[in-house]
Structure formats: C-alpha cells, structure tokens
Amino acid sequence: MEPSFWHQRWAAQQIGFHQAEVNAYLRRHWPRLGLAGGSQVLVPLCGKSLDLLWLAEQGHRVLGVELSREAVAAFFEASKLTPGVEKRGAFEVWRVEQLQVWCGDAFDLTPVDLAGCAAFYDRAGLIALPPAMRQRYLAHLQRVLPQAAQGLLITLEYDQALIAGPPFCVLEHEVREGFAGWQVDALEQCEIVQESPRFVAAGVGTLLERVYRLAR
Ligand SMILES: C[S@@+](CC[C@H](N)C(=O)[O-])C[C@H]1O[C@@H](n2cnc3c(N)ncnc32)[C@H](O)[C@@H]1O
C-alpha cells in the first residue's frame, strides 16, 4: 500500500473504514492500560478517527500520524477545532493544545519524536497494510517507541483467500511473533460478518475482530 493508494482513497472518499462513533473496544478496554491522565498516546495511521478526540478527553496528550493531509484537515474541521500548523522534519504538525496530528509517513517517525509516548492505539492501522509492510511496521513501531510503552491493538481475522485486503487478515500468531518479547493479552473477540455485506458477498463465513493489550 503505497502512499498514492491512500491519497486516492481519500480523494475519492472511499473511506469505509471511518467510524461515525468512538470505537467501542477502545472505550471498553483502554482503562486496562492504567495510564496516567497526562500520558502521551501515539495513534499511528489515524485517519480522521474520532478516537483521537476520545483519547484527548481522557486527559491524554495525543499524537496522531496520518499520510493524508485531506484526512487531517477533515478531522479538525469536523471537530470544530482550529489547529496551528508547523513543520517538524518530514512532518507537518497540526496541533490544538494537547492534541496533535502529524501529517506524513509513520515510517519517518524517530525515537526522539516518540520519546514521551507511554502507549499506542492501533485500530485499522496494522490491518491496513500488506504482509511485508506489516512486518516493517511492527519492527519500526518497536524501534521508535520507548521501552516501557504499552498498546491496544484491534485486528481482523478471516479467510484471506476469499477476498483481497485492505483490510487484511492478521492472525494471532502474527501478532505474537510481531510482538515477540512483549506480553500479549487477547482481551476480546467479536464475530462481525453479519455487519459486513462485502465480506458475506465474497463468501466469507466468519470475520473476527480481535483486541489485544500489549506491554513490554
Ligand atoms: C484503514 S485507515 C484507518 C484510519 C483510522 N485508524 C481509523 O480507525 O479510522 C488507514 C489510514 O492510514 C493512513 N496511512 C497509510 N499508510 C500510512 C503511513 N505510512 N503513514 C501514515 N499514515 C498512513 C491512510 O491514509 C489511512 O487514513
């Protein structure tokens, strides 16, 4: 999934991944991380997700990262927030108080950029990427996040032979191998195939959303 793929998706408003409400797993499981209010949270591949606002409302300093400037602008417009915008290295940083979205490529993040992050939240980030890029993404996240970081990760499992991604199928063993050396707790799984007509039409019989807590 090259940047041009995502820019085209945003330009054509093919953003079926966007949720009109805050993610229910986030609300339900975030408290398990036990983070202090002012902790900084990385939201990689954030789109224009309302989850950014929810995390900020919990008192967190939020650092979203998103390739598409269109998505970033749409997020602030929908939120009725007027951000300041400044350059920082390879990124354009859009910021309102404790909420910032870095417009650019998540692979350009450095350990210095994320030195203050206590946790990350990935919904539709990892599963947006094809296999080789996922490996690169997981290795990169672990390299740039501080040693003590935790995370909440939401994945999707289905028969990849029946329908092409994104979103891609990411099985539990891939999560465990990708986060080798981390504690990986499977928190919840939910069958959602009935809410996913595109998958039903492709003959997919089971579509599992899964939620993991990660700590090292
Ligand atoms: C499937 S969407 C999910 C967005 C968001 N997490 C949500 O739940 O709505 C994936 C997003 O990642 C962005 N993206 C893809 N590759 C990226 C990269 N390398 N760096 C930053 N953003 C990226 C895309 O533009 C897209 O908005």
Could you explain how this protein is built, in words?
The chain has 216 residues and is α/β, with parallel strands linked by helices. It has a single domain, classed as Vaccinia Virus protein VP39 (Rossmann fold, 3-Layer(aba) Sandwich), CATH 3.40.50.150. The chain has seven helices and nine strands. The protein has a nine-stranded mixed β-sheet. Strand 4 and strand 5 form a beta hairpin. It starts with a helix and ends with a strand. The site of S-adenosylmethionine has 19 residues, from strand 2.
Average pLDDT = 97
Number of helices: 7
Shape: globular
Helix content: 25-40%
Name the CATH superfamily assignment.
Vaccinia Virus protein VP39
CATH architecture: 3-Layer(aba) Sandwich
Which ligands accompany this protein?
Answer: S-adenosylmethionine
Give the low-confidence spans.
Answer: none
Number of strands: 9
Structural class: alpha/beta
As for the number of domains, it is 1
Order of helices and strands: HHEHEHEEEEHEHEHE
Characterize the largest beta sheet: strand count, sense, and whether it forms a barrel. Answer: 9 strands, mixed
Radius of gyration: 17 Å
Broad CATH class: Alpha Beta
As a percent range, the share of strand residues is 25-35%
Spatial order of the strands forming the largest sheet = 3-4-5-2-1-6-7-9-8
Output the CATH topology. Answer: Rossmann fold
Question: Distance between the terminal alpha carbons, to the nearest Å?
Answer: 29 Å
